[in-house]
Design brief:
By secondary structure, this protein is mainly alpha-helical. The chain is built from 13 helices and 4 strands.
Length: 324
């Protein structure tokens, strides 16, 4: 009998193979920590309570939208309509605030659910590619929002709604608290429920999921509905913070910010995995990066270039990890 012995790979080669996995797993957290450390030493007044509070308030709507986007990308999809859903939500608010905050909020969230249901039906029933299906509502949704608002910016004076943007609980801004609660809720949904496991299974292999009896169409539609509701909620909170309903600009490029947070956070575009904490960290990283460059008097275009480099690096690392 002949025993075949396989030589162990060189230590350097093993380290190179494990590097992409490490970066995708922990790179975003290391980057956030490095940015905070840099600002602690080189950016005056950056780590003050007031500035950190401002950064968290600004990133909260992005986190909320990115959580919904992570669910969609986990199914190997994408939702380009989230910015338009935010605009539609803010356009509907002033029309129903006369009936109270709760009815107005429910109407805005219902609009997000309807847009999400349309997206989900186009993807799961009609069979359109997600980018094509959601691109239609990316354009049409904002147009509808402008029609609803009669193309005008409307000032918000309702104290109940404004308290969502300015209120706090135990010193924590309410919008930040809502984002944190939603992050925990989405994490529980993904890791502890049958629906979450179905989402990941469908993203990993939709054909195999269908053959195994999973309700693929229903799950896909549900994911897009959740994404739409979260986007509408983010629009409501952004409106409360800005004290005005402006569907012409609210949510502009939000889809790109959300996708960036998800990808940088380690969720692969190929689906089959959802990293909720990584998504939150990805949103924080992009916010801190932009704020850092602004504090050092660099133009916003520089921040956009830096974000592009980070996105390319994140996608490259994910590709390297899959190829190995």
């Amino acid at each position: 009998m002949t025993t075949q012995v396989t030589a162990a790979p060189p230590v350097g080669a093993a380290a190179r193979r494990s590097a992409p996995a490490w970066f995708q797993e922990y790179g975003v957290y290391a980057a956030v920590a490095a940015l905070l450390l840099f600002n602690a030493f080189f950016t005056e007044h950056f780590l003050t309570v007031d500035n950190l509070r401002t950064q968290l308030i600004q990133v909260a709507p992005i986190v909320i939208v990115a959580l919904g986007m992570a669910l969609v990308i986990g199914t190997e999809g994408v939702d380009l309509s989230v910015g338009s859903v935010m605009a539609l939500g803010t356009a509907l608010l002033p029309l129903y605030l006369g009936y109270g905050l709760v009815p107005a909020l429910l109407i805005a969230l219902l609009a997000g659910a309807v847009v999400g249901a349309v997206n989900g039906a186009l993807v799961s029933v009609v069979g359109l590619q997600p980018i094509v299906a959601t691109l239609a509502l990316f354009v049409g949704g904002r147009g509808l929002a402008l029609v609803v608002a009669d193309g005008r910016l409307k000032q918000i004076v309702n104290p109940d709604l404004l308290s969502l943007g300015t209120g706090s609980v135990l010193g924590i801004p309410l919008v930040v608290l809502i984002a944190v609660v939603l992050a925990f809720a989405v994490a529980f949904l993904v890791h502890r429920t049958t629906f979450g496991r179905q989402v990941v299974a469908i993203g990993g292999n939709r054909s195999a999921a269908a053959l195994s009896g999973l309700p693929v169409k229903r799950v896909l539609t549900g994911v897009y509905i959740l994404c739409g509701v979260l986007a509408a909620l983010a629009g409501v909170l952004a409106t409360a913070r800005l004290t005005a309903s402006d569907p012409s600009s609210l949510g502009t490029l939000m889809e790109l910010s959300a996708i960036t947070a998800v990808v940088v956070g380690g969720t692969p575009l190929s689906g089959g995995s959802i990293r909720v904490l990584g998504t939150v960290a990805g949103a924080l990283l992009m916010q801190l990066l932009r704020a850092t460059l602004v504090k050092h008097d660099l133009p916003d275009s520089t921040a956009q270039i830096a974000q592009a480099v980070i996105i390319i690096a994140a996608v490259y690392v994910a590709r390297e990890r899959r190829s190995r």
